[in-house]
């Protein structure tokens, strides 16, 4: 049994990329904090996780590159276009101004067509992280932002800040980055946040079910469409390579043999706004090699689908900081992300995550 150490209650969090996912997270923290008396835990593993509640998450800094967001209070920026996630609460003034981040490859071709970049000089992220006593930085940059993601990871290493990678750029699952985080005594988690009930977790769970029930999978696909900036940005096909690898590997890891599959974002449909529609198809054979097929359609407001997962990831990462654990957080990553250092079935990942929180598992 690992000794459980109760540290400071506040979890100081910085955000890189104030898009729809950041909007849902900021609104969600305020929602659960406002309902703390009822201990409303719908959407969370638990209202109290290892001694931390959602209201203990304290935003201290935010970075973006859009003119519509830079310089605004975080409470305003999360609702600024092109964000189109639904509003569930009125977030009060936070006193946190969104600062200009380093652009690098954070603005793709399609992204730049509709988002005017701020002309302000980018801030020194290392200095901001140190001055604000940031515990954890969440990477919410657009898909395909490889250089920019690595830049923020570097700043976290320099500042001694835990890095949570919500997008499909391989850092926590990359052995070279893992070694560097261990050497700097800094934890990291990721990569590519998994939705609470989204395309990947449904698809991998179905694949595991078929395998466990002795059904041979012959072929499968997963197609996704949506109407927010994430899907518009992914019209740049060259930015999609890591996304396809991340989603495909999560499903393939559940099947102990090669299966023809096609998984990934498919198209942008503007009138869907922040809704995401997923189509999953599976074809296989069961008893006597008799064929069967399965078709699933899932429609969800996309931004909120990962917010509860991220609240759990943040609290788990803070517990790792409290215990002075460095390097990739395997249990948190397997439970909360699509492309973790170690792939697990959903049930095993959740069990390991709870064991880690309870101090029964080292990482």
UniProtKB/TrEMBL annotation:
EC nos: 5.5.1.4
Boundaries of every Myo-inositol-1-phosphate synthase GAPDH-like domain copy: 198-302
Class in the EC hierarchy, top level: isomerase
A GO MF term: inositol-3-phosphate synthase activity
SUPFAM superfamilies linked: Glyceraldehyde-3-phosphate dehydrogenase-like, C-terminal domain, NAD(P)-binding Rossmann-fold domains
Matches recorded under Pfam families: Inos-1-P_synth
Keywords: Isomerase
GO BP: inositol biosynthetic process; phospholipid biosynthetic process
Family: Belongs to the myo-inositol 1-phosphate synthase family.
Descriptive protein name: Inositol-3-phosphate synthase
Organism per entry: Candidatus Nitrosocosmicus oleophilus
Source taxonomy: Archaea, Nitrososphaerota, Nitrososphaeria, Nitrososphaerales, Nitrososphaeraceae
């Amino acid at each position: 049994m690992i000794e459980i150490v109760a540290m400071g209650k506040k979890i100081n969090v910085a955000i890189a990329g104030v898009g729809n996912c950041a909007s849902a997270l900021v609104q969600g923290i305020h929602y659960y904090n406002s309902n703390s008396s009822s201990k409303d835990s719908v959407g969370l593993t638990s209202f109290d996780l290892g001694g931390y509640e959602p209201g203990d998450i304290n935003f201290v800094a935010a970075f973006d590159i859009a003119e519509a967001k830079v310089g605004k209070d975080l409470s305003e920026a999360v609702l600024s276009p092109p964000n189109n996630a639904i509003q569930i609460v009125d977030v009060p003034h936070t006193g946190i101004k969104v600062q200009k981040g380093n652009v690098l490859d954070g603005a793709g071709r399609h992204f730049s067509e509709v988002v005017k970049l701020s002309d302000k000089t980018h801030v020194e992220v290392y200095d901001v992280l140190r001055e604000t006593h940031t515990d954890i930085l969440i990477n919410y940059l657009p898909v395909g932002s490889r250089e920019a993601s690595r830049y923020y990871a570097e700043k976290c290493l320099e500042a001694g800040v835990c890095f949570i990678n919500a997008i499909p750029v391989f850092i926590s699952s990359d052995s070279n980055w893992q070694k560097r985080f261990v050497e700097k005594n800094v934890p990291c988690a990721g990569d590519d946040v998994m939705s609470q009930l989204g395309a990947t977790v449904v698809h991998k769970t179905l694949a595991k079910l078929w395998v466990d029930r002795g059904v041979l999978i012959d072929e499968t696909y997963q197609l996704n469409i949506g109407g927010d900036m994430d899907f518009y940005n992914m019209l740049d096909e060259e930015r999609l390579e890591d996304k396809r690898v991340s989603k495909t590997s999560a499903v393939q890891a559940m099947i102990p043999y090669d299966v023809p599959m096609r998984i990934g974002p498919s198209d942008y449909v503007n009138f869907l706004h922040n809704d995401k529609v997923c189509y999953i198809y599976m074809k296989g054979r069961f008893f006597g090699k008799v064929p069967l097929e399965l078709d699933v359609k899932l429609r969800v407001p996309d931004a909120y689908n990962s917010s509860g997962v991220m609240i759990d990831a943040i609290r788990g990462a803070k517990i790792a900081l409290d215990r002075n654990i460095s390097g990739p957080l395997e249990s948190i990553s397997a439970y909360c992300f699509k492309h973790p250092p170690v792939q697990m079935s959903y049930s095993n990942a959740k069990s390991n995550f709870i064991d880690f929180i309870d101090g029964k598992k080292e990482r």
